[in-house]
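Give me C-alpha cells for this 222-residue protein.
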Amino acid sequence: MKRLGRFLGLLLIVVALAVTTGTLVPRPLWPAAAATPAATRHILVLSNPIHTDIAIPVDDAVRRRFRFLADAGIPADNPEVRYIVFGWGGRAFYLETPTWSDLKAVPVMKALTLDASVMHVDVAGDIIESRADIAGFDIGEDRFAALLDFIDASFQRGPKGPILVQDAAYSSFDGFYEANGHFNALVGCNTWTAAALRTAGLRTGWWNPLPASLGLSMRLYN
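Here you go.
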C-alpha cells in the first residue's frame, strides 16, 4: 500500500508539472511578426469546467462553406444565428453524457484511454462576452480562412460528405458528426481547440489538456 501511495503521489506531481509547463511555455515560442490586418474577424472560445468550443461568426460565405449543416437540419442558415459553435471530442463521452447526471464509467474509461472522435456543432444568437467562460479574439481574414480549413478538415467524410451521427443531439439545434483523429487523455478536446487557435495565428500553451490551462495561456500570450 505504501508503494502504491508513493507511486500515485509521484504520478500526481508529474501530471501537475506537465500541466504547469504546458501552460507557461508558449507555442509557438516566439510571436510571429505580422502587420495589422486591414479587416478582422472576432471569434469566441467558450469554456466549461472540462471542455472548450470555438464560436465562428457567420456570414453568407461561412453558411455556404458549412451548407451540409442546414441540409442535416441544424439551423445554421437561420437569419437569427450569429455563431456556429464547433467542438471536437471523444465519441462515447460526448454522445452518452449530455449532462453530469448521465456520467457513466465506460465513457470515462474510453476518454482516459482511447476513443473515436466526433465533431459537435451547435448554433447561437448574440453572445455576451462579459462572462468568465467566454473569451474573444480578433484575427485577420487570412487566419480566419485557415481556421475554417482546420475545422472543415476535422470532419470525417464519406462518399456524400461529412458523416452525420444519426439520432444524436442534445437539442433540435445541434448535431454530431464523425470526426478525424482519436481521443485520449493526452490528446483531447482542449488540445484540439488549442491547435485550431494556433492555426488562427494565436499563441497557446505547449500542452493544454484543461480549459483553465488553455484560458490562462491565451491570456498570457495574446
